[in-house]
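Incident review: delayed structure delivery

Summary: a single-chain prediction request sat in the queue longer than the usual turnaround. Root cause was a stuck worker, restarted by the on-call engineer. No data loss occurred. The affected request and its eventual output are reproduced below so the record is complete for anyone auditing the incident later.

Affected input:
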Amino acid sequence: MKLLETGEKILIQEMERLDTAHALFIIDIDNFRKILAHLDEETCDIIIKKALERIQSNSRSIDHVIHLGQDQFAMLMTFLEEHADLGVIAERIINMFSKPFIIDERLVDLSVSIGISQYPLHHEDSMTLFQYAKIALYFAKSIGTSSAVIFSQTMNDNVEEKSHLIDELKKAINEKEFRIHYQAHVDSKANAIVGAEALLRWQHPNKVMYLPKDYLIVAQESGLMPSIENWIISEVFQQIHIWRRMRQIKIPVSINLSQNHLREKVFLTHLEKLLAMYDINPSQVIFEIPEHALLDPESQNSINALNELGFGLCVDDFKANALKYIHDNPIKQIKLDKSFIDGIFNNNKDETIISVITTLSKEIGIQIIAKGVENQDQIDSLKQMGCYVIQGYFYSKPLDIGDFEDYILVNGTSQ
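Output delivered after worker restart:
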């Protein structure tokens, strides 16, 4: 691992001087990016300084507390006692951040997550111990805010497996192993196809097919998702262009966009180039965005720009958490989360929520799509609640381009 930060260099040097038992705590401020979005740089610098002081106040004079960079700190506990409870120490650090910081008469709430490694229990090499503490921090942050995790070898095995998958994903991008399958949106009232969603499939050379759940989370966490989504957009635009030239299919196609992609400054420039290249009408494309993107200031510029360019916008896996933000954004569609559909006959609350969302959406001109519908009883109930557009295996599984075109020819569209 290449050390780029001065703080990391100092930390490793201090660790290498020690030959007695010690523990390394990597402490990370939770959701610091969101804090940065709402405060100026000077205020953020003050927060970092005060956070460092708070950690130092909780350490012994023989310990080392170091700022590693931006929102991350290290506490190196030297001359560790044999029965020291690292979990209790970590909990004490987390608890001392429960008290708000007062900056310019403003209260700022912070929380931290912590990854811990120990010498010589986990390893004797300083650099490896540093990596192990970072791995433990990754697992702590995956649990949620205000969490602490002590390293175990199982974590390292998981990280190595993840690293291998990342390498495979990079290879898949370069060697064009991905495929697009299309799943129809069907108007159950008119019995006509009114749209489709473009879904990613990975045709791995050594496997029949990777399912999205096997790799999409890793692609998101590793920063590969924007590259994959750019490929999907290009493929779909090209397919819409072919359909238009052959005068075959005129339904809109939905494409998923991650929040990280919405935040990228080059995304819109790339999109405009593809529009010009394939000469398609942007109204034929609907971008599906995650619900939490509506709450993210960094995503707002892209959301508004997509609307101005003429693309449709749909909130995917809608759980009603951002219901009050729908009215303030240029949203054309909402896709109900599958959990609502699954709970139609088991939970009266789900039926009530669907009815309320459907009624409100009609009043403000937003189309509702029910996702993951698998049987006629679900369709009948959704119709009674005023929800007619269906996506799910009841009508069709995701199909490759050849089978999807055949499906369209047999069943017809509303266009």
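Verification: The two ends are 56 Å apart (CA to CA).
Action items: add queue-age alerting; document worker restart procedure.
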